[in-house]
Write a structure and sequence with these properties.
Radius of gyration: 38 Å
Order of helices and strands: HHHHHHHHHHHHHHEE
Largest sheet: 2 strands, antiparallel
Mean pLDDT: 76
Strand order of the largest sheet: 1-2
Low-confidence stretches: 249-255, 264-271, 276-315, 327-343
Number of helices: 14
Strand content: under 5%
């Protein structure tokens, strides 16, 4: 389950590096009932920072390390609770009426399986093997209780680990179900799962899931990077007459070089990451906050155009070049465009304000003087 959770919202290579980081940091158990498995109890007891460094290369390590720690704590408590309940039930006489509530799935377990479950709990080996004794529906909803485990992860664990028929919906399966018209146009991925889980026959769920994934990765028209007019597009699609593609087809692209083709093949799974919306799988709210980008300095130049550019180092300004040639240059406003410094210029002499002449007095009739 942890391995499947680490593969959410990232590529296959990144999730493999994350699980390898856990193995290198905590090691594998070399003896006892958990021989060959990761020492998940050591992971549970370690600081979260240590787990973060171990899975840092897998992406979203801040969120995933915290969720994994919470999940492992829940599994540990669950194992110890089931151990106590199984031991209490074993002490009751078979003829008397049972007073102890048996844990979920215990009715379907054999005595040998119960003894093995008790032994694992006593050795602090974290295990979910008891899910095998539950029904497919009970096991599925039990998985959804753990932090970070959404519908897709629970469906994958049910299908590949518990061997219960389940139609897991990843980005390729979701895309094909939409194009084939199997679900409403506005259906989300989780609604697509619930819709197809009911309608697809049990014996076809595993094979159809695998078929959609392989076709979505290999078909030149159905993969994430599909461009009409490209070389791969011209090869056609075996289900072209059945699908109605709704994604925007990209413009024709040139034939990539061998180096770019290799890089593209290695990043096939990263295309899946761009399209997936891991709403239940991973909550990114706890990740690092984005730092605000400082605003650019205000333009303090007097003109309406661009701010004056500073001179390049080692180059003379126009004022310096004019002075070297012995030419007189007029300076406006005490500054010169293109020069970072204020040139030293002689202050212009201020002219005295014009003196107003007194108006002449003209004699008028009546003896009064008119200005």
């Amino acid at each position: 389950m942890i391995r499947t959770y680490l593969s959410s919202s990232t590529s296959g290579d990144n999730s493999s590096r994350a699980i390898q980081g856990i193995i290198q940091e905590y090691g594998l158990q070399t003896e006892g009932l958990g021989k060959g498995s990761v020492d998940w109890n050591a992971v549970r007891r370690s600081p979260v920072n240590r787990l973060f460094k171990a899975i840092e290369s897998g992406g979203l390590a801040v969120v995933k390390s915290a969720k994994i720690k919470e999940t492992l704590d829940m599994v540990y408590e669950e194992n110890q609770t089931r151990r106590s309940a199984l031991l209490a039930a074993a002490k009751e006489p078979p003829s008397s009426k049972a007073t102890t509530v048996a844990p979920a799935g215990a009715q379907s377990e054999s005595e040998e399986a119960k003894a093995l479950e008790i032994a694992r709990a006593e050795e602090n080996i974290l295990s979910l093997d008891h899910l095998h004794s539950m029904s497919a529906q009970d096991a599925f909803f039990h998985l959804l209780r753990y932090p970070g485990i959404g519908v897709k992860t629970a469906s994958c664990v049910s299908l590949f680990c518990l061997r219960h028929p389940s139609f897991a919906v990843d980005t390729h399966v979701f895309r094909h179900c939409q194009w084939l018209g199997w679900v409403p146009e506005n259906a989300t991925r989780d609604k697509t799962f619930m819709h197809c889980e009911v309608r697809i026959p049990q014996h076809l769920k595993y094979s159809l899931h695998q078929l959609f994934i392989q076709h979505g990765k290999k078909c030149g028209r159905c993969k994430a990077r599909a461009g009409e007019g490209s070389e791969e597009w011209a090869k056609g699609c075996v289900i072209d007459h059945l699908v109605r593609r709704t994604h925007k087809e990209k413009s024709p692209v040139k034939k990539p070089s061998a180096k770019k083709r290799k890089r593209s093949e290695e990043s096939e799974d990263e295309d899946e990451e761009e399209e997936e919306e891991e709403e239940e799988e991973v909550e990114v709210d706890g990740d690092e906050e984005e730092k605000p980008v400082p605003a650019p300095p205000a333009n303090k130049s007097k003109g309406k155009g661009k701010a004056p550019a500073l001179p390049l180092p080692g180059k003379k300004t126009p004022a310096a070049r004019g002075k070297a040639k012995g030419k007189k240059e007029e300076v406006t406003d005490g500054k010169e465009v293109g020069d970072a410094r204020e040139p030293k210029t002689k202050k212009a002499k201020k002219e005295p304000p014009p003196v107003k002449k007194p108006a002449k007095k003209v004699a008028t009739k009546g003896g009064k003087k008119k200005k």
